[in-house]
Amino acid sequence: MVLTIQAPAKLNRFLAVLGRRADGFHELELVTTVLEGVPGLTDLLSGEPAASLSLEISGPAGHGLTADASNLVLRAWRQLERVADRPLPARLQLEKHVPHGAGLGGGSSDAAAALRLGNRLFDLGLEDQALLILASELGSDVPLFLLGGTVLGLDRGERVFPLRPYPWNRCSSRIRACTSAPRPCTGPCRRSGTRSPSRCPPCRPAPRPPGATT
Question: Which of 11, 19, 99, 173 is buried most, with the most CB atoms less than 10 Å from its CB?
């Protein structure tokens, strides 16, 4: 039986870097919306039981990604195996649509999808809180994809709290995937002053605050 889990991108609505922690990470306060229901910004992770664990990567955003031990999907799967205390052999297929390294959380979302997929595929019975703990060990952004919706993130971003629903498409006119930059515009455009994505000229990536996560 093949199971498929969606792994949507995210939109950071607010991000404040409050200072540097004793462990070297930055103290963050951020509000993020998971962009559920956007086909062009949603990865698909499928899996079925197999003789051994494998991962195939395809899709328009899959070029250059490798299925090695550093891949967040496989790292998440190994976490599940550690908790289950047994191998979880499966044939995994990741169809990538979220651009890699674009600040949209694609890798973190894939990891969250892997936790959900493995839990269901092998009937591990892990509760949401247990999955959130595993997610926080994988990366600061991974827990918010388990919650979905609009989320408040604190500390490194891994402490997550659901907020009231806020439709992401209320600000869709201010979001543009710049073909010349790996990050979306969150205008109005600083160069033209326009809020029209069609008239916004190519822009350069905005500077990232130190310690900000992907």
Answer: 11
